[in-house]
Design a protein that fits this description.
Length: about 230
């Protein structure tokens, strides 16, 4: 009977894949992450998640270290309101590079303190957010004015979808829309489930794209005049 002795792993020569320059490896990671996000959007289901690329960071120590050193790899934040710890990890690993932030999959019929904590953490990063997509309850919207301390200088794309609990909408009661702050570079705006009178407070001369799904519209003439004021 022949017996083969397998040498310890340390005696194997390094594989060709581990010899890839870290710049090339991280470029592959970035392309893979982009493909996973694209597939997640196309399939629109939890079996295709935007972070399906994460297993490649656990292939070996070299790949793991290369992924951690690439801040842009972690700069796409797509989390639900129950993912506080994962959000903290993404914010740390993304360093100070520009962010794309998406808060979604809010789970009715209740909201808890962690919802506001997650929203606060994201809004603290507004100075480096270039694209923000938020599903948010009406009650949390009323707190935005206090949470946004300074105009977001890099924000170019904003998408807001309002969620009301049991039909309750404190915005209608207070008669004041809490997002009337400066957005100097906003180019794309998507607003869902707001009154037109609320949504138009976000219209800016810099806008180039507008998607509006309002719950209540004024006469068509007023809508047309408001939109005509935007640049061509």
């Amino acid at each position: 009977m022949d017996i083969s002795v397998v040498p310890p792993s340390s005696s194997f020569p390094p594989s060709h894949i581990s010899r890839l320059p870290s710049e090339l490896l991280t470029n592959i990671f970035l392309r893979l992450a982009h493909a996973c996000r694209h597939e997640a959007r196309a399939m629109d289901c939890y079996s295709h998640q935007p972070y399906a690329w994460l297993p490649v960071t656990r292939v070996c120590r070299f790949w793991h270290d290369a992924a951690l050193q690439c801040h842009s790899l972690w700069a796409f934040i797509d989390v639900s309101y129950d993912a506080l710890e994962w959000l903290k990890v993404l914010l740390v690993r993304s360093g100070r590079v520009p962010l794309v932030a998406k808060l979604n999959d809010w789970d009715p019929p209740y909201e808890d303190q962690s919802d506001q904590v997650i929203l606060e953490l994201v809004l603290q990063e507004l100075p480096r957010i270039v694209k923000l997509e938020v599903e948010i309850t009406a009650s949390l919207l009323t707190k935005l004015e206090a949470l946004v301390q300074h105009p977001p200088p890099m924000l170019r794309s904003l998408s807001l979808r309002k969620i009301c609990i049991n039909g309750d909408d404190p915005l209608h009661e207070q008669g004041h829309f809490p997002l009337n702050f400066d957005l100097p570079h906003l180019r794309s705006l998507k607003v869902f489930r707001f009154k037109f009178s609320e949504a138009k407070t976000l219209f800016r001369p810099s806008l180039r794209k507008l998607v509006l799904d309002a719950t209540e519209y004024p006469p068509l003439r007023e809508v047309s005049e408001c939109i005509r004021e935007l640049p061509p």
